[in-house]
Amino acid sequence: MKELFFVKNRSERILSFVFLALICLGSRAAAEGRQEAEIADGPVLTITDQTGRRVAVPSSVERVVTIPIPAASMMIAIDGGTDRLVGMHPKSKSALEEGILREFFPEALDIRSDVVGNGFMPNVETLLQVDPQLVFQWGHLGADVTDPLENAGINTALLLYGNQEYLEGWIQAFGTVLGREEKAQRILDWHQATLEEIRGAMEAVPQDEKPRVLYFLRYLSSKSVAAQGTYNDFYLNLAGAVNPAGDMKSFPEISEEQIIAWDPEIILLNGFESDLSPADVYGNEKLADVSAVKNHKVYKVPLGGYRWDPPNQESPLMWKWLAMVFHPEMFSYDLRAEIVANYEWIYGKIPTEDQIDGILRIDMNADAAGYSVFKRK
Fold first, then answer.
1. pLDDT tops 70 at residue 14
2. What pTM was computed for the model?
């Protein structure tokens, strides 16, 4: 039995491969007995997930379901295809349908997305039909979304959300479960190199030269912004911005009056509300005097292999895009060339100029201040 540990932060995270004798678990819950029986005939990989739970899976996994929304595209990226992904969240599917993976891997459109009901509640009946060897589920949302899986005897590994260290743990875990450790490590190395590059550049920027930036997780259905403790707040700070909501926590709903009081110089719009565009902000008469609106600095976040706003395999491209938007005088990446170069080794595909336009949302962002730098030459 091979054993992998991936835990909560980088200082704790260890990869340890140890061959152990397969231990009889004795009379435990029926769910655990079912899990053990299903994998008893072959080599076993034991993982310790990000909440400290031990999960045994076949060392050669062929059927995986991902419930956390960013995880499906990450699995496809690390595995180099869709063959082993048999179920995903509906919002994972919508990102795939709207983004470049629809064109890179059209067969992914056939992967089931009815394995999840409302929110992140697993649809156990469907999951039993799909018969996954492993399900990845969120570990911070409580027993309501995990107990149904455990009670049905479905192997479940839990992931945590909110910072770069957790993201790196996902990448590491997916690489090991899929037997794609080298690919996962290359992604991790790319993340670390880009972090160090941008952090180093931003050390010399005084606080009063950093723009005030609001990221809207929701704008149409409510006015919900990223605050302290979110991945979005992490990269706003990384790329040299001041988050006016930084003293709040999570994703608070705010009023239009609060937006006016904060007077953001740049507004970022989420990729989850498909119909949302900068025009929705520019057309809001109440916000007409907000600096971001007056100066035409409202941007729809790009959508590549996944939405760039949550943590994902392409996060270094998001960080570079942000750095160019926030500090165009400092950063002059050829982001189109970077997309081509990195997509080739991540997905084994080279995007066309039209596809890159779609990733960068040139249609929505074409008239935004400074966005000509992202257009094709």
1. no
2. 0.88
